[in-house]
Amino acid sequence: MKGCLECGDALGFNKPASFAPKIRFFRTQARMLNYRHLHYFWIVTKEGGFARAAERLDMAVQTISAQVRELEKALGHQLLKPAGRGVALTEAGQAAFARAEEIFQLGQVIPDEVREAASGKVARLAVGFSDGISKLAAHALLEPVLATPNLRLLCHEGEFEQLLGELALHHLDLVLAGQAAPRNPNLRLSSERLVDAPIEWYGPVRLVGKTERLRFPQSLNELPVLLPTGHSALRTTLERWFETQGLQPRIVGEFEDSALLAVFAARGLGVFPVSRLGADDIGLMRGLRLLGSSDGVKEEIHAIRSRRGQHHPLVQQVMAAAAGRTDA
């Protein structure tokens, strides 16, 4: 017992309250990243070296070098390594630069977005168009919002995966594509098929007469044909349709842009397919005539949104108008 009392005395448990040890609780905090250091690292990487970064920032090379070393010390990893007269990213540096790129690209658009929000005058809508999608059909889908007062419409065209990344970073409000977004919980995107529009064929009046219309689709074997390029989902669908119909059309032109394709057709180059959704725009071009419809062939267009985009009033307007269409 004496041993226990002595132990208690040693620990202070058996001493008067005035002698009780004071116990303090500390709240641990994660070390805050220094974004100025990150910015210097980002500039050095983009410029390819400390000397060019120092020239861009109008600072001493030694100062920038010291700031980058502080960042490496804070992160616990080397980010840059010598490469010739410049520097290159280590694997850790590649990860850091990818995030820095996202951060500072977002930072560059903040002033414009704040100014627009404060003015209350600009209705901004940023839309991405996937390569291969019919631009005529896309224009028809956006038409309900084109009369919005003080609209600022930003249109970007690019590869599908690239646009999804831009959407996830909130650089875009909406992506229109020929396919649905893949399931990826990290991107947090929602996808909805907007239209499933039948495909029609048009051509210049001198090529599309009564005989050609009556003999459609067999008349496609005798007419010069313009098609979307192979990167379009519609191209694959049309080739399967050609095979089922026993057609071997003479292809005289291939185009990535459906609007450009229609322009060349209107100049007499050949006949071409277009979704019924984009046919209204075709009517604006003089000298084009309906040849026929490809039974069972349709063009799909999907609307892909981020969580923020789901609440964008103009995106909601586009979605509502597409749901009420009768031509798709």
List keywords for this structure.
41% helix; 328 residues; alpha/beta; two-stranded antiparallel ribbon; elongated; 6-stranded mixed β-sheet; single chain; disordered N terminus
What does this structure look like?
- The protein has 328 residues and is an alpha/beta fold.
- Helix content is 41%, strand content 24%.
- It has helices spanning 2-11, 35-47, 50-57, 61-75, 91-119, 135-142, 160-168, 210-214, 233-245, 258-266, 279-282, 313-323; strands at residues 80-83, 86-89, 123-130, 151-158, 174-177, 189-204, 224-228, 250-255, 272-275, 288-306.
- The strands form three sheets. It has a six-stranded mixed beta sheet with strand order 4-3-5-10-6-9, with helices on both faces.
- Helix 9 links the parallel strand 7 and strand 8 (250-255).
- Helix 2 (35-47) crosses helix 3 (50-57), helix 2 packs across helix 4 and helix 2 crosses helix 5.
- The longest helix is centred in the first third of the chain and has 29 residues, at 91-119.
- 30% of the residues are buried.
- The model is unreliable at 1-30 (pLDDT under 50).
Number of helices: 12
Radius of gyration: 31 Å
Strand percent estimate: 15-25%
Q: Which segments are poorly predicted (pLDDT under 50) over 5 or more consecutive residues?
A: 1-30
Category from helices, strands and their pairing: alpha/beta
Q: What is the β-strand count?
A: 10
Instruction: Provide the residue-averaged pLDDT.
Output: 84
Task: Estimate the global geometry from the Cα principal axes.
Answer: elongated
Main sheet makeup: 6 strands, mixed
Q: Report how far the terminal alpha carbons are from each other.
A: 91 Å
One letter per element, helices H and strands E, the order comes to HHHHEEHEHEHEEHEHEHEHEH
Helix amount, in percent? 40-55%
Instruction: Give the spatial strand order of the biggest sheet.
Output: 4-3-5-10-6-9
